[in-house]
Amino acid sequence: MNFNNLLFEQIDNIGIVKINRPDKLNALNRETLTELKTVFEVIQNDDSIFSVILTGSGEKAFVAGADISELNRLSMLEGKKFAEFGQEIFNFIENMEKPVLAAVNGFALGGGCELALACHFRYASENAKFGQPEVNLGIIPGYGGTQRLPRLVGKGRAIEMILTGNLISAEEALSIGLVNKVWKKEELLDKSIETLKTINSKGQQAIRLAIKAINAATTDNLNSGLNYEAILFALGCGTNDFKEGTSAFLEKRKPNFTNS
Ligand code: COA
Known about the structure:
By secondary structure, the protein is α/β, with parallel strands linked by helices. It has helices at residues 30-44, 68-71, 76-94, 111-118, 145-153, 155-164, 170-175, 188-200, 204-218, 222-237, 240-250; strands spanning 6-11, 14-19, 51-56, 61-63, 100-104, 107-109, 121-125, 129-131, 168-169, 181-183. It has eleven helices and ten strands.
């Protein structure tokens, strides 16, 4: 499979998808999201692939968020569509019948943290950093972060992360249950493969049924929550603070919010 912004390889029955825009810290532009959708659709229908690792290429990032240069231009209506587009792909990943393990190898920020949250479980390297820094841009998470983060780490932790925009270390992410394990950078992929090999050795029908059943435990009311998030994300796109926050990032300066 050939993509502009993804790398794909298969080791035994494991598909490895690498987001590959290292010069932009693997930020998710529209083309990358579209390619992600395609690769997961292909994997879903490929009987030789039992499970998937999703990771980032380069030394620094898993995914540093949605591409802010695309965000910056959004009107309110476009903002709603933008959120819904990402949500649809992340829902597809969450609803995959094959286990998807996020191997978080660096920054997992904004849409990157949300992408990791949509995966079935997460391993991190020691240098990984997690955060929902959208408020720094005058906006809120729009790819499911307001819904999946509280479900995983509890409301108090999620509110603190989303309202402060602070980044947390891999160790802290481990302590709040955001990731299952932390590995040395050079071990992350091998350990991820080892775990998936264990899962792949089980009866795959049982694995599929278990994912469906466990998803049902956490996706109650998820769709209405996601709809509401998309509407509130769109409202944020109509504010002056959003234009200022995203422009400030692109111009490499501090934002001057007017709270309007
Ligand atoms: N969207 C678009 N471009 C991004 C990006 C994003 N989310 N995150 C990083 N980049 C780009 C930078 O603009 C820079 O591009 P340039 O070299 O053409 O100027 C390149 O990736 C490297 O990033 P840089 O900021 O120089 O690296 P750093 O090590 O100094 O800082 C971060 C790393 C992750 C702290 C910083 O890039 C950052 O804050 N990114 C945005 C995170 C964010 O707000 N995500 C949520 C978006 S909704």
